[in-house]
Amino acid sequence: MQYLMAIDAGTGSVRAIVFDTEGNQLSVAQEEWTHLAEEGVPNSMTFDTAKNWEITRGCIKESIKLAGLRAEEIVAVSATSMREGIVLYDKEGKELWAVANVDARAADEVKFLKENFVGVEQEFYALSGQTFALGALPRLLWLKNNRPELYEKVANISMIGDWILAKLSGMIATDPSNGGTTGIFSLKERQWISAMANNIGLKDDIFPPVLEVGTVMGNVVDEASGMSLQTKVVMGGGDVQLGAAGLGVTKEGQVAVLGGSFWQQVVNMKSDVTPPKDMGIRVNPHVVQGLSQAEGITFFSGLVMRWFRDAFCELEKEEAKLRGIDAYAVLEEKASKVPVGSHGIMPIFSDSMKYGKWYHASPSFINLCIDPEVCNRASMFRSLQENACIVSHINLKKIEAFTSIEIKEIVFAGGASKGALWCQILADVTGCKVKVPKVREATALGAAMSAGVGVGVYDSLVEASEKLVEWDKEYLPNQENYELYQEIEKEWQEIYVEQLKLVDRGLTASMWKAPGL
Q1: What is the rounded distance in angstroms from the CA atom of residue 317 to the CA atom of residue 300?
Q2: Is 161 found in the same domain as 114?
Q3: Which of 214, 235, 325, 512 has a Cα at 20 to 30 A from 486?
Q4: Could you report the per-residue pLDDT of 413-470, keeping only the tens digit for each?
């Protein structure tokens, strides 16, 4: 039998996962990594390529061991990663400098570009679907300004997942879904736009080949990785886009909500659709040729829930231990007895997506009362669940407005989809049918699919997703609840505007601001 390996390089850890060709997960080996703050450089997150490659090698070896396989039984390997993180190389292909996706050191450079190249961000966004906030151009400019000796040596750029494939195959390349998040990229042509770099005084000859997902890059050349030198290395892609493929979201008009630490709302659309003029939504190339994805992002939804659990819910955590279940399951049981609207409690955390000017209010709960029967852990927990769904719905409506795609069905995955109450709330808030897949580790499955495409196990990602994705549950919206949530959504938006004014006046601290604001 043939086996496939997926390597998933996330913000906080890397995983190596072995799948069979039916999509069954045989093993996973995971290890956390940390990103280094550079001394004297605020908001920096350096990616340690030397240390992190040894961590990745260790995961590869452990995963093969746990699967009980010989290395040569792995016929193909592919990778996916956090987007926006970049690696720069010299002319010999040696890593010079790398940063994680959360690196925000280039705030001054973002301001410089906005002030000295008026209208360029809007021009680039219309082509790439990206703003300067998370893009590579400000970071490259930071390197030129602050580490000129390194900048002069730069001969190539790639993303973190591409770096893993380069270490395995010896070839530096990228795919549209990952490379597109640099902002130096054409949505329509699915290729670099090197003139963007040249236009602002940066090198325009550092962009590697663009390969579509599923393209074979060569055989493994790193014997120390623990992989067979006969194993094929196959181009992968960005975590959200490959995650969508792992959920069966591979055709125009299909929709997914990915409920993890951050929540992403993605809608498939044709590649030739122009991003909205207000720059309110991000647009990325999909892993499927001919498609892009409109993307809304809700900040910290999963992390806020974890904070709430750990800060306030010791009793529920103890109860969960005694019952042998997850603490979130205990909290959901209690929250299910709270009425729609959570007694008027309004959480103020992530705003809806405003990609062109992206910042958030100070974290808070509004409209609390001192009646413990009304305002308690259960009602506050439910309010957080409702709020994540409300912000997702606002983002989806923005996407509907410029794509003219009518959203009626949502695929819901990630840790949040494990909660039956959260799934039902998402259906009630959006008025859509919500489908939950059996395999929730969609990103790794998507990377395994791309490996399989490379060696002919599957004809395409579309065919692989149709074959491998199975459904666990469906949730239908309650019309009465939907109408109630419509009113709550309007009220929340008005309240959030007022909370942002407090940040603008310097009276409260923003939860997060994009670099350059």
Answers
A1: 21
A2: yes
A3: 512
A4: 988 999 999 999 999 999 999 999 987 678 999 999 999 999 999 999 999 999 999 9
E strand residue ranges, 67-124? 74-81, 86-89, 95-99
For residue 56, give the nearest of 39, 89, 32 by alpha carbon.
32
The boundaries of the domain holding residue 415 are 248-300+395-475
Q: What is the mean pLDDT of residues 193-221?
A: 97
Kindly state whether residues 294 and 437 are assigned to the same domain: yes
**Partner residues linked to 238 by β-bridges:** 81
Residues forming a β-bridge with 97: 88
The residues that bridge with 219 in the sheet, in sequence order, are 232
76, part of any domain: yes
Residue 44 falls within a domain, yes or no?
Answer: yes
Distance, in Å, from the CA atom of 268 to the CA atom of 257, rounded to the nearest integer, reads 12
Q: What is the mean pLDDT of residues 205-216?
A: 98
What's the structural domain count of the chain?
3
Same domain, 422 and 486: no
- pLDDT tens-digit profile of 471-495? 999 999 999 999 999 999 999 999 9
Report if residue 513 sits inside a domain. no
Helices (H) and strands (E) in the chain, counts: 17, 21
CB 260 within 8 A of CB 103: no
Domain membership of residue 425 (yes or no) is yes
| pLDDT tens digits, one per residue of 276-314 | 999 999 999 999 999 999 999 998 898 899 999 999 999
- Residues 257 and 373 reside in one and the same domain: no
User: Which of the 8 DSSP states describes residue 14?
Assistant: E
Which residues pair with residue 346 across a beta bridge? 366
* CATH number of the CATH domain containing 275: 3.30.420.40
Q: Is the pLDDT of residue 516 over 80?
A: no
